[in-house]
Write a structure and sequence with these properties.
Blueprint lengths: L1 H19 L5 H13 L3 H6 L5 H5 L3 H22 L3 E11 L5 E10 L4 E10 L5 E3 L15 E2 L3
Antiparallel strand pairs: 1-2, 2-3, 3-4, 3-5
């Protein structure tokens, strides 16, 4: 009976930890990327970006990631600070393609100065099945998927 109780306790703790981790969904990764921007964790943000196998095999891949993080920090901090930082964000929608390998997450971002934007975050699965931010162009994505569409009341 003690073994059963211990086993059930371990299972419950495992389930609790898994449910708190946010999972590997486009929505969870998009929200994590926004949290990285709020926390100014630009290296964490870059870790959520999709890179091809060819990119990752490059001898200077880690250095390139650091440079990308520095670029995002420079451009992102300037842009976000002009709007008095990110006050809040929420997921508006999550659309996963029929093939299950790409997705689009629409996020509402509210800035400290009161401005609001609807941002589309393109996602794709890497070779391990993890959702990542797709910074490249994808076929079938039109002008309706541009980032930074301002919300007007």
């Amino acid at each position: 009976m003690k073994r059963l109780s211990i086993f059930l306790g371990v299972v419950l703790i495992t389930l609790f930890i898994a449910s708190c981790s946010g999972g590997n969904t486009p929505k969870a990764v998009a929200e994590k990327s926004m949290k990285c921007l709020v926390d100014k964790d630009f290296e964490g943000y870059v870790d959520l970006i999709y890179f091809s196998d060819k990119d990752m095999e490059s001898a200077d891949f880690q250095e390139s990631k650091k440079q990308l993080a520095a670029l995002i920090k420079d451009k992102g901090e300037k842009s976000i600070s002009k709007k008095d930082d990110i006050k809040s964000f929420e997921t508006i929608s999550e659309e996963i393609a029929k093939d299950g390998n790409t997705a689009n997450v629409k996020m509402k971002v509210v800035y400290g100065n009161g401005e609001e934007e609807a941002n589309d975050i393109k996602m794709r699965k890497d070779k391990d099945g993890n959702w990542k931010i797709d910074m490249g162009k994808q076929e079938g994505r039109g002008a309706d998927h541009e980032v930074g569409t301002e919300i007007k009341d």
